[in-house]
Amino acid sequence: MAGALTRVLKEVRSDVEAARVRDPAARDVSFLGILSSWGGVQALLAHRIAHRFHRRGARLAPRVIVYGTRALTGIEIHPGAKIGNGFFIDHGSGVVIGETAEIGDGVTIYQGVTLGGTGDQRGKRHPTVGDFVTIGSGAKLLGPIRVEDGAKIGANTVVVTDVPASATVVGNPGHIVRVDGHKPSGPDTDWIHLPDPVQDAIKQLSERLTEIERRLEAVDGEAAEAEVRELRPKRGPSTAGG
Length: 242
Fold this sequence. Notes:
By secondary structure, the chain is an alpha/beta fold. Helices cover 34% and strands 14% of the residues. It has a domain at 1-80: serine acetyltransferase, domain 1. It has helices at residues 2-22, 31-37, 39-55, 60-73, 197-220; strands at 76-77, 82-83, 88-89, 96-97, 102-103, 108-109, 114-116, 128-129, 134-135, 140-142, 146-147, 152-153, 158-159, 168-170, 175-177. Helix 1 runs antiparallel to helix 3 (39-55) and helix 3 packs antiparallel against helix 4. The two termini are 37 Å apart.
């Protein structure tokens, strides 16, 4: 029992340090300050304890801990979920992590994220998330998919297929893209300027229509009536988590 408590305390110290490094609001806050007022850290502490009870075959205690944690923080983590070190939940309200979910080290997720299952099958039915993955607010990862190391999931993205390492996924359903042709790095990815493959396809179609109209004008000697406006990148504040 003493060994299990020591491991839990070590994991909690790692979680608190992750909050201090990745959340600008926590950088000047003490260990106890973060532990007492950061809901994501509190939910992880409760999960570490509930997970130990779950592994020992306890039935009631883990469920009571999960219920109390959900009521206190708005975060629901099944005691059977496996979570690595340095996990950080920013804000956290509405986060749901299913029973067979597996999360690696150094992962960051934002509010409203779901690591959920599909259907009513038994066995492995929730996502496996690799190391140093970042998942934007409102994203839904469904089914026994794999998200490999260093991947980035954009806000409100719905992911139902595997994601390769260092890729960025946006949209519903999720599309695998790259950020400016480079591999994304770090938990503070520029969520505002993520590429949108659907918008890119529409832009290419618009350019082709404009060229066709120019050719028709040259053939007929009359200006085309329709006007195709050039698409411009969306500007403004990001609605992603942070």
